[in-house]
Specification:
Layout lengths: L16 H6 L17 H50 L5 H9 L7 E5 L7 E2 L4 E9 L11 E8 L18 E3 L2 E4 L2 E9 L11 E7 L5 E2 L1 E6 L1 E2 L12 E2 L4 E2 L2 H8 L1
Parallel strand pairs: 1-9, 2-11
Antiparallel strand pairs: 1-3, 3-7, 4-6, 4-8, 5-7, 8-10, 12-13
Amino acid sequence: MCTFNLQCPVTDGSCKCLKQIASPGVIKPIPIPAAFPNDPNMLSALYRLIVQQNEMMRNISGQIQDALVKVLQFAESNQKIENNLAPQTEEVTTPSSLLKFLCCDLCNHSHSLQIANEMPSPAYKERAFSVVLNIVDSNGVKVRLRQNLVFKVMLFTADSPPKLLAINTSGDKIMRGTLEAEGNSVVVFKKIIIKEVTSHFRNGSFFFVVVAKDTNFIRPFIYPEFVIKARKIYPDCPKKKFKTENCILSSQADDENLDS
């Protein structure tokens, strides 16, 4: 086989294949166009193709604009729905709504509870405080009932609806001490200890509530925005109950007496 022509059977190089390749008379193949540039049929076909593509692009652009309008309308409607729902999600409990929550439809009270001492503001975690309440009539005059009633201390959150707190974030009872007291004129809760801080809860406060058990003619006492902070520690003071200008601390014996 010749090295210059695959179809040449000569193998000794005596063929004329090399001369044919080097000959200037050989015409090399060139690509033949499908049509001449000035062919009117080709120009008409190109024009129709361009017009068709422009029409398709115009239709696609219109569809994109319609889709964009629908997306904007959908986003606007969702924003309106969120704005309408925002007041409900941000609603918090008020003293009046809590009273309705406690009494349901039985809100026509002939008597109420009136604070007789100063509530701690703020109270401190694990530090005892006392609450004294007077039973008064609808005119605010202190009265004496014929028999003693039992009153109970409760804590509620500011959520809507309010939640009654029984345990703290550690899983322990949230209150200890004098949580129930009897009285027919004056109700005294000698030592109440709360084992939680209000910063862990909504609005950073509780509702301190005292209700009469097994009766509905006495309006519950509701103290809003009851704040409890972490207990202050004074390392320089001994752990005995005494008063100085700088600190008041309760001894461990007092805490054991509250548990008993």
